[in-house]
Design goal:
Elements lengths: L1 H7 L6 H23 L1 H8 L16 H19 L1 H51 L2 H4 L4 H43 L1 H48 L1 H6 L3 H53 L6 H42 L20 E10 L7 E11 L3 E5 L6 H7 L8 E6 L2 E2 L5 H5 L2 E4 L10 H5 L8 H10 L3 H5 L18 H15 L3 E5 L7 H15 L3 E5 L3 H4 L4 E6 L2 E6 L1 H7 L2 H8 L3
Parallel strand pairs: 3-8, 3-9, 6-7, 7-8
Antiparallel strand pairs: 1-2, 1-4, 4-5, 9-10
Helix pairs in contact: 2-5, 2-7, 3-4, 4-5, 5-7, 7-8, 7-11, 8-10, 8-11, 10-11, 15-17, 17-18
């Protein structure tokens, strides 16, 4: 229920619509009740069961005045024009009442539509914003497919299971209150009996609904696994075919899919049970009320037959909203399982936090420094990736990080823009701890070109201008020229307006990498991080990319992670990493003369 209350907070911006919905529903219910209550005295007058009324009633703001006035009006018409005209009058009044009832019913739905769709939109916006704000460490523990499932299928489940029944929660309680109020006026004793029966019925439905929630949570989790497998399959088709692993992946998918099938079956059966179960329980309640009310009429004579019949007619109008309420309860239990999964993301703690009133930096002045930095990923073994690292990088220098895989090179550079925070020690920029800096302005200092060219399914222009939507076209072209990308871009079908496909699938590896370099050139950052930017390229592409990188690094502070000698031999300082610590440092000539780890790596070409 706590999750449901949290979802209701999304209604606050739409409170005026919600209020109108309640008002229109109330008017709809009032006209529905009037159509039932007024028809009985009209028919009694029409068929002579009660005497005609000759005097107009005294005005009063009450239901009795309304009934008496229409009885008087009907009596006048019957006396002046006969019973046929009286019947026509009843038909016209009935049609008007039902028209007004359905008009207000439509208006209630009309004002609720932007609420239902708006809440779903707001949840999606909050989810996307949260996903962008969470640190990279969060995603190292979560399956990408499961996160996609939560943003798509779970949000859709909330839309269908909760938002679509929101109106029921604003409409049916009004129905129930109005009809119960009329029933109390007719027979308080019989109404109390009905109320107790409804509470018992609601308890039975509630117990089944809790099981539905548990089953729904299992189903959503399995669906997340399915999406993860599909995502991995599409990303790794080349390897799957190369290793003839199609049967293995198919068997894996079938196993999870079959598990999801069984859970979905249980879920469907329990959900579909709601309607027949509710109807059966409703009939049981009606039969019990008939028995109890019949005794009040026949044995104890505490209730007139006419009043009891009217009571049962109104009670029959109470059953549909009660049934809708119970069906909605089933759907909400299913939707709450999805809301729990969504709030697991929204409530996830962001370990990368800004202090109050952080310092905004606009430029890089003299140095980057790591002081006694230790770091471990939040894995099961808590193994340190970096241990007591001390390093100072002066402005304008090119620093190379080398070492075998797992030595901590990429982790070290990830600490600089605060993708992660160290467990011990501190990272300083111009003498200031980066935890004291405004995160946005800190990351503005860095340009990153990684081993994997990360591009988006958009045009060449938008990929280069990523993060700078108002970038001048000439500036984009100039950045592309510096990155040796302009010539191949102009050969594309639509030049800079060519869509490059999912992850740049329409381009070669070298072309993709040159676009990422152009993006970094346009940003024009004072600090450049190159994380093995040429390692996956062929010789010709590497030459073009390296030329672009040399232009990009000119006049900047550069931190280069590389395994090819041509990339780093002219670095101002080479840092050799081993087991998370700095093993050696110096320039190329000095380290080769030292005859240590660096020389072995050069000779083996292992970095």
């Amino acid at each position: 229920m706590k999750q449901f209350i949290r979802l209701l907070r999304y209604l606050i911006p739409y409170r005026s619509n919600v209020l109108l919905n309640v008002v229109f529903n109330l008017l709809s219910v009032v006209f529905s009740l009037v159509s039932i209550v007024m028809l009985i005295p009209f028919l009694q007058l029409l068929f002579g069961k009660t005497p005609l009324i000759n005097e107009a009633p005294t005005f009063a703001f009450s239901p009795n005045f309304a009934i008496s006035f229409f009885e008087f009006k009907l009596s006048t018409i019957i006396k002046e024009s006969g019973t046929t005209q009286g019947l026509l009058f009843i038909c016209i009044i009935t049609a008007i009442i039902f028209f007004l009832k359905n008009l207000f019913r439509f208006l209630a739905v009309y004002v609720m539509s932007p609420v239902r769709n708006g809440v779903v939109r707001d949840i999606r916006n909050d989810l996307y914003k949260k996903i962008l704000s969470l640190p990279l460490a969060y995603y190292s523990k979560e399956k990408k497919g499961d996160l996609i499932a939560r943003m798509t299928d779970d949000v859709k489940e909330i839309e269908t299971s909760i938002m679509n029944v929101l109106e029921i929660f604003f409409r049916e309680p009004v129905n129930i209150i109005v009809f119960l109020g009329a029933m109390v006026m007719m027979s308080f004793q019989l109404t109390i009996f009905v109320f107790v029966m409804l509470l018992i019925t609601g308890g039975i439905i509630g117990r089944i609904g809790k099981k539905l929630k548990r089953t729904s949570a299992e189903g959503q989790e399995k669906l997340g696994f399915l999406i993860s497998i599909i995502d991995e399959t599409l990303s790794g088709l080349r390897i799957i075919h190369a290793f003839n692993a199609g049967k293995f992946k198919t068997a894996q998918f079938k196993e999870i899919n079959s598990s999801h099938f069984k859970i979905a079956n249980r879920l469907t059966l329990r959900r579909e049970l709601s309607s027949p179960l509710t109807e059966f329980l409703a009939i049981c309640v009606v039969c019990t009320v008939l028995w109890f009310g019949g005794r009040l009429v026949l044995d104890k004579q505490l209730l007139s037959a006419e009043t009891f019949i009217g009571f049962m007619v109104i009670f029959s109008q109470l059953i549909p909203p009660a049934k809708s309420f119970s069906n909605a309860f089933y759907n909400i239990q299913k939707g709450l399982a999805s809301s729990h999964r969504i709030y697991e993301i929204l409530d996830a703690e962001n370990s990368i936090k800004e202090i109050p009133n952080p310092i905004s930096v606009k430029d890089f002045h003299h140095s980057i420094e790591l002081k006694n930095v230790s770091f471990a990923y939040n894995n099961f073994d808590q193994k340190e990736i970096l241990s007591q690292v001390n390093l100072k990088i002066e402005k304008g220098k090119m620093i190379a990080l080398v070492g075998q895989s797992g030595a901590g090179k990429s982790t070290m550079v990830d600490l600089l823009p605060r993708f992660y925070d160290p467990q011990k020690g501190e990272v300083l920029i111009d003498g200031e701890n980066i935890k004291n800096l405004n995160l946005h302005s800190l990351r503005d200092l860095f340009g990153i070109v990684s081993q994997e060219a990360i591009l988006f399914n958009d045009t060449v222009y938008n990929n280069i201008a990523f993060g700078f939507p108002g970038a001048n076209k000439e500036a984009v072209k100039e950045a592309a020229k510096i990155a040796n990308a302009h010539d191949f871009i102009m050969r594309l079908e639509n030049g800079y307006e060519t869509n490059i496909g999912d992850r740049g699938s329409k381009l070669s590896g070298g072309e993709k990498q040159r676009l990422t370099i152009a993006r970094a050139v346009l940003k024009n950052p004072p600090i450049l991080i190159l994380d093995e930017a040429t390692s996956s390229l062929d010789s010709n592409s590497e030459k073009l990319v390296q030329e672009a990188l040399n232009k990009l690094m000119k006049g900047r502070t550069s931190i280069v992670i590389a395994h090819r000698l041509s990339t780093i031999q002219f670095a101002d300082e080479i840092i050799v990493m081993k087991n998370g610590a700095i093993a050696e440092r110096g320039n190329h000539i000095g380290l080769m003369a030292h005859n240590g780890i660096y020389k072995q790596l050069v000779e083996l070409q292992a970095f």
